[in-house]
Design a protein that fits this description.
This protein has 15 helices and 13 strands. The chain is an alpha/beta fold. It folds into two domains: 78 residues, Ribosomal Protein S8, Chain: A, domain 1 (2-Layer Sandwich); 282 residues, TIM Barrel (Alpha-Beta Barrel). The strands form three sheets. The chain has an eight-stranded parallel beta sheet, with helices on one face. Strands 1-3-2 form a three-stranded antiparallel beta sheet. Strands 4-5 form a two-stranded antiparallel sheet. α7 packs across α8. The longest helix is centred in the middle third of the chain and has 18 residues. It is globular, with a radius of gyration of 23 Å. The chain starts with 9 loop residues before the first helix and ends with a helix.
């Protein structure tokens, strides 16, 4: 007799059962019992936490809470863990309970639903059933990655839009589904440019791309109302705002009116200040609370959930350890039930680990990208589209077996 430890992935467990000849109805009954889940609930009162623990135990699940919450009136974080079957029973029980437990019930139920991520922008669907690649186009002189279109166009003695078109044609051919255009650098310590200059750089390229590519989704990286408005009028599908609509809250009215998407990114400070000794007590919690607040802001302004994307902001006011922690715990942002956008391409954290210059960070980028995918990233913003698409393809093929 031999005993083997098995992979806990739900799909694989079903295959194990089929391989040994388990009855179909038996598989339906037993599969939820093998699906183990853990959830963290913040800021529960001790009353609610104790009721939650007792109800969980009655279902065969359990809850870890702060020791003092058993005999003192305190706030606690709770770790709820159990099988899918047990948690479904717990949800039914919590609906009838007082304090904040009814809300806990609704939120757990929402998180347990298996949803296919998708965006609905300008009457077009972007299905995110597998990772999607967003190609980066920097229409600047001073991009951190050294790929600024304006410098390249100047060197080649061509119009910037000609260089942009050539690059985007290549990216689309290689598999990019979204193209992100940025006309103002947001590298650390970069200075903002005037709206007029940003529009002068952006609009000619956007106009050319929209005429050439009817089906590709075009994102414009801006936090300025006037630029966002003009970009949408010239065919932008998504506004990628590094300030998460804090700098120009009125952009929300444009997003609602024209049914375009918005990417809400976390950034500590501004590009001029973000890398001056950033400090976090709990980086994941701080980002999660920030993104939740910005999503609520958008929903209150009438923006639909299928228009919203969240971005934890790798490299924007983050230390090396913060960036690594974000990638490693990316799945914790699933509580928002929204697509997660991630920009890790050629970032400085890769350079610090590998002691590599910007142009030498491709392998590091791909390694980080694969981990991000396995942790739940939906859209990856990259410079090297072909390599990223190929890496994703290998990951997806392996996961099917």
């Amino acid at each position: 007799m031999k005993i083997f430890p098995l992979d806990l992935e739900r799909k694989r467990i079903k295959e194990y059962m089929e391989e040994i000849g388990v009855d179909r109805e038996g598989i339906k009954i037993m599969l939820p019992k093998t699906d183990f889940r853990i959830f963290k609930i913040d800021k529960l009162s001790s009353y609610a936490a104790n009721i939650l623990k007792q109800e969980a135990l009655s279902c065969g699940a359990d809850v870890a809470i702060r020791r003092e919450s058993i005999f003192r009136r305190v706030q606690t974080t709770a770790l709820v863990f159990g099988t899918l079957s047990q948690l479904k029973k717990l949800i039914e029980k919590l609906v009838k309970q007082p304090f904040e437990l009814r809300e806990v019930s609704y939120k757990l139920e929402e998180l347990l639903k298996e949803k296919k991520r998708s965006l609905f922008l300008k009457n077009r669907h972007l299905l995110l059933d597998k990772p999607c690649i967003c190609g980066i186009i920097n229409i600047t002189f001073d991009s951190f990655s050294g790929d600024g279109i304006l410098a390249q166009a100047q060197k080649e003695r061509k119009k910037p839009q000609e260089v942009v078109l050539r690059k985007v044609e290549k990216m689309v051919k290689e598999g990019a589904k979204i193209i992100d255009l940025g006309a103002e650098s947001s590298r650390p310590f970069s200075k903002p440019i005037k709206e007029e200059e940003e529009l002068r750089r952006l609009i000619p390229s956007l106009e050319v791309l929209r005429k050439k590519f009817k089906d590709i989704f075009i994102s414009v990286d801006t936090y300025k109302y006037k630029v966002a408005k003009e970009a949408i009028s010239y065919g932008a599908d998504i506004i990628n705002d590094i300030t998460a609509l804090r700098k120009s809250p009125q952009i929300a009215s444009l997003i609602k009116k024209y049914n375009v998407g918005c990417i809400l990114m976390h950034m500590k400070g501004s590009p001029q200040t973000m890398q001056i000794r950033p400090v976090y007590k709990d980086v994941i919690r701080e980002i999660a609370e920030f993104l939740e607040e910005r999503v609520d802001f958008c929903l209150k302004k009438g923006i639909k959930k299928e228009q919203i994307i969240v971005d934890p902001g790798i490299g924007f006011g983050k230390r090396l350890e913060d960036n690594l922690r974000i990638i490693n715990r990316l799945d914790e942002f699933k509580f928002l039930n929204l697509p997660v956008f991630l920009g890790i391409s050629r970032k400085s954290f890769i350079g610090k680990i590998l002691h590599a210059k910007v142009e030498e960070r491709l392998t590091g980028t791909l390694a980080a990208l694969i981990v991000a995918i396995l942790k739940g990233a939906n859209i990856l913003r990259v410079h090297d589209v072909k390599e990223a698409v190929e890496a994703i393809k290998i990951v997806e093929v392996i996961r099917r077996f």
